[in-house]
Amino acid sequence: MTDLPITDAVLREACAAFAFRGTVCDVKPCGNGHINHTFIITTDENGMRRRYILQVLNTDIFRDPDGVMENIVRVTEHIRAGLLAAGGDAERGCLHVVRSSDSTATGIAAYRYVDRDGRFWRAYDFVEHTVCRLTMDSPDTFRMVGWAFGNFQHQLSDFDASCLHESIPDFHNTKKRYAAFLDTLSRDPVGRAASAAEEIAFLTARQERGSRIVDDLAAGLLPLRVTHNDTKLSNILLDETTGAFVCVIDLDTVMPGSSLYDFGDSIRTGACTAAEDEPDAERVDFRADMFRAYAGGLCRGNRRGADRSGDRNASGRGVHHYAGAGDPLPDGLPGGRCLLPHRVCRP
User: Fold this and answer.
1) What pLDDT score was predicted for residue 331?
2) Cα(24)–Cα(19) distance, rounded to whole angstroms?
3) Model pTM score
4) Are 226 and 75 in contact (CB under 8 A)?
5) What DSSP string runs through 12-50?
6) How many CB atoms lie within 10 A of CB 268?
């Protein structure tokens, strides 16, 4: 992704590239995201104001932007069709991708714009009268998050996940992560392995456990599902008046995988008593009440329970702790600043 500034001229050209209804009358930066550049576009159509989200996708992270957008279009169209069939709120119940203003564009080119500097743009309808919450303040809040992502799984339970692209290849491939860890450990280029001996022993003793979900997917023992892969509270829109769930957002990391990945990712952050980069290990603990709240909400949301058993959900939690514990070590052992043994949270 280019580091060139996004000028007013660039923004005007990007706005003109999408089929926004009315005339653009305001453009403002939006959100606290650290990955994509986001703007709120306001248009005027015969006195009626409409709003849209306009984004530059970070192609340094998402190397196949067309694949990302193809995933999003397929998933949102499937959810919308289900909502329409069930008499649900198809306007606010899922994201709407805005088409290109180029009426001759076909395929995924009809949903994106690449500017002269190589930036990859896409746009959505703004979901009005909604808010995002950032603070997980209680088990009831976490239960609602579980219901939201369980409902997301339910909406896509009849979708063929194998047709989706891997937006970030090997994102949850714990076998490859472990192989990278062993490679770095064998080289120990700056002599840090000795200082992390306890953490290294913890990981090596659990090698088989760490690859359990990957192995079971490959063997067909777990079903392939559509996974969100960023299942946090801020990726849910809530009605600004009632606080009720409206829809799931931030679909860039949607790809095929196991629903246990989403479960483990939620528990890793939501049921922990501290931030993932907390330096004081004494403050890091596991909240069973949050675990139960999320699991209960998830099972009610997906209408069918876990893929196989509660045991598997516990496995999802453990594998995410395992992967999260291993992440800093390959980065830190070569001499980077990410070697943080205190981050290892033992399930």
Assistant:
1) 46
2) 11
3) 0.86
4) yes
5) HHHHHTB--SSEEEEEEE----SSSEEEEEEEEETTEEE
6) 20
